Amino acid sequence: MEAYQDVLTKLTNVGLQYESRPSGKETILVFVLCPWPVLKREAIRNGIHDWLTGVKVADTAEAEEMLKPAKNRDQSLDDLTEADRIRLIHDLVTGQPSEGGAGIYPTDNEYVESILPLHDKQFNKTWLRTWSMKWLVNQADFTEIRDHFGEKVTFYFQYLENYFVWLLFPTALGIIIQREKELALVWGVRNVTKSENRRPAFKGDSIITDPVTGEQKAFFSPWKRWARKVAGLPVILAGALALSVLVTFMFGVEVFLEVYYGGYMKEILVYVPTVLFTLAMPYVEDLCNDIAKRLTDFENYETDGTYDYHLVQKVFIFKVLNSYLSVLLTAYVYIPFGPRVIAILQGYGLPFATVAIEPSMLKDRLRAFMVSNQVISFFSETIFPWMSRKLMKGAAKVQREVSEVLHHDDAEDEATEVASSGQDSEEVRKFLRAVQNQVDLPVYDVNEDYAEMVEQFGFVSLFSVIWPLTGLCAFINNWVELRSDAAKICFHTRRPIPSRTDSIGPWIDHLQHLTWFSSLTNASMLYLFRGATDHKDLTGADVSSRLSLGMMLLCVVASEHVYLGLRWTVRAILETIPTEADLSSHRKEYGIKASWLTRLNGAIGLTAVTTMAASASTSTTTAAAAEVDSTTQSDGGNCSGSDSGVDTSSMRGSVSSLRISEGEYRSMPMIECMLPEGDLGAQAIQSCFKAQ
Fold first, then answer.
1. Within 10 Å of residue 280's Cβ, how many Cβ atoms?
2. 458 in helix, strand or coil?
3. Comparing 289-303, 391-405, 617-631, which segment has the lowest mean pLDDT?
4. Do 95 and 242 fall into the same domain?
5. CA dihedral 479, 484, 490, 491 (to 10 degrees)
6. SS3 assignment, position 506
7. Are 187 and 217 contained in the same domain?
8. Are 576 and 532 in contact (CB under 8 A)?
9. Are the beta carbons of 621 and 52 closer than 8 angstroms?
10. Where residue 480 falls among pLDDT bands split at 50, 70, 90?
11. Whether residues 69 and 208 fall in one domain
12. CA 316: distance to chain centroid?
């Protein structure tokens, strides 16, 4: 129980309050509440940090408010969105003690299993009902999602909506990039990835003085990180090679049974490779993702942004090989060189089928990939989780009824004991069961959804020349995907912890890589399969006989240069067109500078004013920071854990005997602690939980 008490002590030391309840034999649920003075202190700290690092450009009124003493600042709970409140509390719980945090993080504490916010069921119902009745989602809807789930999740939905709309136009990527910059400015998260908090899992090997802020911070040598990258490179190459061999082998067996083999039980054997591949690939992907995660952990990145970037890079390599290799083998190996293979095999006199290899097989394979992948994805993300949860709930209900019948007397004694001791009511126990159901849900990973959409973008950009309806399939799927992903977040995963970001992260780079690669594949396929409208009158032998490596390379190089020229032109044009977000940012910056110059004295010479302005900026910022520190000290002493009592007279939606209301729980992180092995007897209960 010392580990449990240590967690509670850490929460109390940073000014947080808590309420604990047992859940299961070895699990304790710790509900965390942040008093308004502590939350205000963290919001002011965060605002000053954003201002100093250029994340958010404050207007004149905001800047003047920031320079006031902390106790005189006019700020209320309504100024913070629900996502901001959860993010600030989560940062306070997981932050390093040297930075004012509690230092509680699952990877660093074997008794803390997870930290999660609870779902707001009413918001989820309204969200799904609103989106299901709309053809297109407007910006106000995205703003609501951003206020509730944070920028990282909202950027995904915004990307998916823009991708869905601009599938009808070839310059989708440039529009997405431009829209990304606008949203970062409007949401006040511009450059936020340059000033992220340190990852709790980051391990420094020394302490240095920050050359910019002058603060002491943990440091890990870049040379050591590069050495670890080089050490992990053979592992990545070996994994990529093994995956390529597996995909190629399965492809070869499938083609052999489908086209070449003409023997016994062909009608059944032809489906065996597809079934085996479908069953094996989820495990192979999990293995590849686990390898990528272990290597990225080994490289020891300081911030979540850099960690995600390098993790996604590794995952993307495996994703490309798994998704596109079989189609590329069909286009560049199977169709051009298949007739030669048939001629060689038929020379042995074995029962091989004589089938004309046509390029239309490539279209059939692509069509099967596009349709089957999207159907399987929809069922695996939406239908299967719902069915499995229903089955598990039914099984648990039957088990509970059987247990009640077998232990009827014990249940009556327990109910009498609970009633006499004044413990939680049935309403509270029902709420705790709902919380436990959320704890049992998997963690939502936005990168999985990004990977799915980027994979689809690859099929559209790389192979649309093969089957023109590829874009239409993606267009229809994305309308459904936008709403099914919303349902997945609401019902099938834990509520994501709000996280700030100023873009869709490394995925924009991979979209650009796929777009560049598409300029090569489209040109080469147009050259290989030229002269046929539907590939019906063209055979693999024709393709093989007309193949000229030199001419194909010439077409590919010409296409690549056309793409690069168009990309440069579009980017140059977009950069010269100012957006409303840019103009708003410039107006705020100009207003702040003009206001400060007016304060200092317009009669002073320009050089003197500039010097004094710099000095004044430094001094006022220092004073503001010092004021925050003093507020931290004064507020910290007024906060305590549940033992000191929590005044809930002003809280809405109180739940029976719980001191902290259910409504407040929705916007508070929750820590799930694992008890040490041993009996959880009455003495342990009395020592850990305050009797009510």
1. 12
2. helix
3. 617-631
4. no
5. 170
6. coil
7. no
8. no
9. yes
10. confident
11. no
12. 15
